[in-house]
Amino acid sequence: MNCFNRRFRRTAPAHGSSKSELVPSKTPRINGWSWPLQPLQVVGWLVLIYLTVVTFGVFIPLLPRPWNAVSYAISGISFLFHFFTNIATVTIDPADVSVRAKNNYSTPLPLFDRAKQAHVIQNLHCYLCDVKVGPKVKHCGVCNKCVEGFDHHCKWLNTCVGQRNYRFFFGALVSAILSVFMLIVVILFIFVQHYLDPHILRSAPQFDTMLANTTWLLFLPLAPVKTSSAGLLTLAFITVLLCTICLMLLSHLLGFHLYLFYKGISTYDYVKRSRQKEARKRDSEAKNSCSSKPHSSAQTSPEGSHHCEPTLSESPSFFRFTNTSPLSSRLSDSICTEVTLENFKKSAEKENSFNYGTENPIQSETSKHLTSNILAYMNYIY
């Protein structure tokens, strides 16, 4: 055993704090309307408003009867259903019942301190919310509260999706796919008929006074606005492109949640299992890489492997000795143990003064300790 071929990794503590301190954090969020709003949430609402305007103000009024009435009914129901389920998902507080009964969301909760507890929730008790929770409750770091039946935190809705609002989330997802798909079908029909038989799209009474076939009316029948064929087709192309992107994203999300239904797990469980699988794979690759390296210290260099631990320092050659007897093996084990304990002890005492790019006082103390042990060993030998 050669204890000088190891180095103990440490990370710098947070600036101005130590392990024993709790840094105040933001106030827990109530729902998706809590400030600040997420950029993706704003983008989602802008896209919804745009698609609603062009659906009911531009494209459906151009359809001939009775297809315009059918499109108004199907698109209207799907859009209204999506709107109310979206509002319900964002408005409902997904927090656990014990959190909702205790919290008034007016005082900030502390950040989690692993020096005091290994996990945020232990033995069905959350040390941040300070409440008893159920077995399926998880503490969301973004909302800073325990969520009942936690599935995931959605940036598009700016809230957590849990047991209390998951059904509304799923309903909003399905209705959004139906609405977007219906709009694509309507636009494709208008695009084809614009070249085959444009008169079928000009059945509204407002077109009777217009002689030119290249002029089209938008926002029928309440506020007609004239535009050209190029303007109408450009608007249709932009809308179809946006709808295609939305349909691909929403369909992928729906397929993923149907897969979760089939497996009987949540998004959180899926992500957790994936990370554990990746960690096991990296550990296996690291072990295989380390086992394939020569065990002789003369053939191993500090920069020879990205997975194995490099040496503690560039020690002189007389510091390196080989365990050729049981006595030297015991002394080496003893020295290594003392070095380890001394290293961790000094690290804990000097943690607040640890900075990158500066000399670490722990290393100087450890080097002195190593030197004294080696000299004692050499005196014992000679």
UniProtKB/TrEMBL annotation:
Domain Palmitoyltransferase DHHC: 122-273
Subcellular location: Membrane
Annotated keywords: Acyltransferase, Membrane, Transferase, Transmembrane, Transmembrane helix
The UniProt record lists the keyword Metal-binding: no
TM region positions: 42-63, 69-92, 168-192, 232-262
Reaction(s) the record says it catalyses: L-cysteinyl-[protein] + hexadecanoyl-CoA = S-hexadecanoyl-L-cysteinyl-[protein] + CoA
The protein's name: Palmitoyltransferase
Originating organism: Ilyodon furcidens (goldbreast splitfin)
